[in-house]
């Protein structure tokens, strides 16, 4: 059986060993902090640098125009509204307060509208089935908050439909145009951020051939307001 004095000696030796190892471990992490303000560790600063992915949903409003090619009297304008929902993936690089980024999005859409057309004899309908964008982003970071502007290329699948007495002819074409917008994003944690974003998308003009025959020139543009959640994948 150990004597009491031996136990005390073993405890003291173990304590000295623990203190020595703790000091060595502290040296691995940098200079020791002695309690003075001058040597205090700097405050943690959030970084926007890294890859991210997320989802979004929002509302859309806009208009579409179309006319039978070469027949200005047939020009028709349709008010569009509806919703979008989809995902995004991108990368940010922060330099001081400036944040440079690139982002791609794809959104399913339920955006449509209809009106009487061609001397009020027919019904014309415009519909956007999906949108996609590739944009550059320029942001200004204030720690966990960031405001940004964006601009780039936009695509959409646009459906033009003309009907009369229950019969219809239609055509779908992929339009290519441009997008510009503004947004604000806030980091809820080190990995998760939420954003509110406005986009104006002009999808340009394309020729639709209704049921492969009648050529119709059509274009569309929409404004979207969407909420999004991003998850930071890397630092």
Would you mind describing this structure in some detail?
The structure is a single chain. The chain is mainly β. It folds into two domains: 1-41; 50-232, Porin. It is 11% helix and 68% strand. Strand 1 (50-68) and strand 2 form a beta hairpin. The chain is elongated, with a radius of gyration of 30 Å. Residues 1-33 have low confidence and may be disordered.
Q: What general form does the structure show?
A: elongated
> How many strand units?
8
- List SSEs in N-to-C order: HEEEEEEEE
The radius of gyration is 30 Å
Major beta sheet, strand line-up:
1-2-3-4-5-6-7-8
Low-confidence runs (pLDDT<50, min 5 residues)?
1-33
Q: How far is the first residue's CA from the last residue's CA? A: 56 Å
In total, the number of domains comes to 2
By CATH, the topology of the largest domain is Porin
**Major β-sheet, in short?**
8 strands, antiparallel, barrel
Q: What percent of residues are in strands?
A: over 45%
Helix share bin: 10-25%
């Amino acid at each position: 059986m150990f004597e009491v004095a031996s136990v005390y000696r073993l405890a003291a030796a173990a304590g000295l060993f623990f203190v020595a190892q703790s000091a060595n471990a502290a040296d691995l992490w940098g200079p020791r902090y002695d309690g003075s303000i001058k040597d205090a560790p700097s405050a943690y600063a959030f970084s926007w640098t890294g890859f991210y992915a997320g989802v979004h949903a929002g509302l859309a409003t806009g208009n579409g125009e179309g006319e039978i090619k070469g027949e200005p009297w047939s020009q028709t304008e349709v008010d569009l509204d509806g919703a979008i929902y989809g995902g995004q993936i991108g990368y940010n690089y922060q330099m001081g307060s400036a944040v440079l980024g690139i982002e791609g999005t794809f959104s399913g859409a339920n955006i449509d509208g209809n009106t009487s057309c061609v001397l009020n004899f027919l019904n014309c309908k415009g519909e956007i089935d999906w949108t996609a964008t590739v944009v550059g982003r320029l942001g200004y970071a204030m720690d966990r908050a960031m405001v940004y502007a964006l601009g780039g290329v936009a695509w959409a699948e646009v459906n033009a439909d003309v009907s009369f007495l229950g019969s219809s002819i239609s055509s779908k074409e992929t339009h290519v145009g441009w997008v510009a917008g503004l947004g604000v994003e806030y980091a809820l944690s080190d990995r998760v951020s939420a954003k509110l974003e406005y986009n104006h998308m002009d999808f340009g003009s394309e020729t639709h051939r209704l049921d492969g025959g009648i050529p119709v020139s059509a274009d569309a543009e929409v404004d979207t307001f969407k909420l999004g959640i991003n998850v930071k994948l890397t630092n």
